[in-house]
Amino acid sequence: MSIEAGSRIVVTGATGNVGTSVVRLLSEDPQVGSVRGLARRLPGWSPAKTDWAALDVASEQTDLVKEFLGADAVIHLAWAFQPTHDPATTWRTNVLGSIRVFDAVASADVPTLVHASSVGAYSPGPKDHTVDESWPTHGWPDAAYCREKAYLERALDIFERDHPGVRVVRMRPAFLFKRESASEQRRIFGGKFLPGPLARPELLPFLPDIPGLRVQALHTDDAARAYRLAVGSDVRGAFNLAADPPVDAQLLANLLGSRPVRLPRTAARSAIAAAWGLHLLPASPHLFDAVLRLPLMDCTRAHTELGWRPTRTAPEVIEEFLHGLQQGAGARTEPMRGRKVG
């Protein structure tokens, strides 16, 4: 059932890109009585009605049931992207940690679980038309991120079978960006020494146009609104979340005033694989392979059942993010701390 006035919401991974937007939005909602933010490190930021706990969801020393008791909903966002060279570590945090969260939700009798899945959970799909939430969610097996997101889809299938009284919502957003996430995402995918000012148009006269590189984007705040709507309604199941239009080399070139130049997929992958193998680039070539195969998502269900639509177009999202990248933008949490390099 939907939340009532004075509801208590617990958010895991509350200090990251999505978490900061979700916590802020919930704290401003008059229907929400309190927000409990869980993260590995306490932030230097505390919006109204919000308190914090420092914990690791994957640690057996953490009493998640105690944290969840009395909650009307748990929004599970905690996720580790790194280290890509050590998939056992990310598996421990992302998969085993998530399963601990699911089990604790059931043990604490929390009526609603909203889980952050991803477009990355989807099996390879089309780039010339969209697919709905019934598209298979087996991921791209070579990429740890996709493999873990897909595994958790199966774990939730079993969870829903065994706990029919828990309302489970699976959010499957596109790539999420906002100005404040620029420094964090630069560190995660480009490396901590990649200069953000390289995103200036005058330094990028040419832009690689790689076959298959056509994806969707969404502003993180728009995704957060979908999470809030899901908590406050009776919906169940999966929801695709993305803004229009799809992002490709031509769109990026138009934003940057540059010219797309065709680059063979094998050449691009070889360069990424070499940089990743030398520990110069955090993003793995396996994730690159997955991105080239991600389907484009149809968001009709979110529009009709959640009453959700993005407030920003994909070009607006990318433009805001690029400005944040140039300025070293960030926020007052450890994952989101700003830093300008170069």
Based on the model shown, name its key terms:
single chain, 342 residues, alpha/beta, seven-stranded parallel beta sheet, three-stranded mixed beta sheet, 11 helices, 19% strand, globular
Would you give an account of this structure?
There is one protein chain. The longest helix is centred in the N-terminal third of the chain and has 21 residues, at 87-107. The protein has 342 residues and is α/β, with parallel strands linked by helices. The protein contains eleven helices and 14 strands. Helix 3 runs parallel beside helix 4. The radius of gyration is 19 Å and the shape is globular. The model has no long low-confidence stretch (mean pLDDT 92). The chain starts with 6 loop residues before the first strand and ends in a 15-residue tail after the last helix. Strand 1, helix 1 (17-27) and strand 2 (32-39) form a beta-alpha-beta unit.
Low-confidence stretches: none
Number of distinct helices: 11
Beta fraction of the residues?
15-25%
Distance from N terminus to C terminus (CA atoms, Å) equals: 51 Å
Judging from the principal axes of the Cα atoms, what is the shape?
globular
Into which percent range does the helicity of residues fall? 25-40%
Strand order of the largest sheet: 3-2-1-4-5-7-11
The total of beta strands comes to: 14
Q: Helix/strand/pairing class, anyone?
A: alpha/beta
Q: What is Rg?
A: 19 Å
Mean pLDDT: 92
**What kind of sheet is the major sheet?**
7 strands, parallel
- The H/E string reads EHEEHEHEEHEEHEEHEEHEHHEHH
